[in-house]
Amino acid sequence: MAKGRIEVDQDKCKGCELCLTACRFGVIALSGSDKVNAYGYSYLLAVHPDKCTGCALCAMMCPDSAIEVYREAKDKGEQHG
Fold first, then answer.
1. Could you report the per-residue pLDDT of 3-44, keeping only the tens digit for each?
2. Residue 58 near residue 6 (C-beta atoms within 8 A)
3. CATH number at residue 39
4. Residue 64 region, left (φ>0) first, then alpha (ψ -120 to 50), else beta?
5. 8 A C-beta contact, residue 61 and residue 21
6. Which of 4, 39, 47, 57 could form a disulfide bond with 52, CB atoms 3.0-4.6 angstroms apart?
7. Cα dihedral 6/10/13/18 (nearest 10)
8. For residues 78 and 69, which has the higher predicted lDDT (pLDDT)?
9. Does residue 81 lie within any of the structural domains?
10. CA atoms within 13 A on the CB side of 52
């Protein structure tokens, strides 16, 4: 399974939860009312980052482009030399 990682611009996130419905692996959650961004919104957190596959569905669903997704490069076993 591919390995991925997300980065969230917390000040862009409005806590709309669209990304939560898209994430099939339970990687993300909202910060809760005790942690809010500069605009007073709960924001997205990667609560189980080890489960991220880098599918980018969360980023595609985000209307504010608050999520960046990165995937680990796969070693194809090619040797150069």
1. 999 999 999 999 999 999 999 999 999 998 899 999 999 999
2. yes
3. 3.30.70.20
4. alpha
5. yes
6. 4
7. 30
8. 69
9. no
10. 24
Do the domain assignments include residue 19?
yes
Question: Has residue 76 been placed in a domain?
Answer: no
Q: Is the pLDDT of residue 75 over 70?
A: no
Residue 59 lies in a domain: yes
Query: Residue written as tokens 């980065």?
Result: 7
- The count of domains in the chain is 1
Strand partners for 79? none
CA distance 45 to 66: 11
Whether pLDDT at 80 is above 90: no
Pairing of strands 67-71, 44-46: unpaired
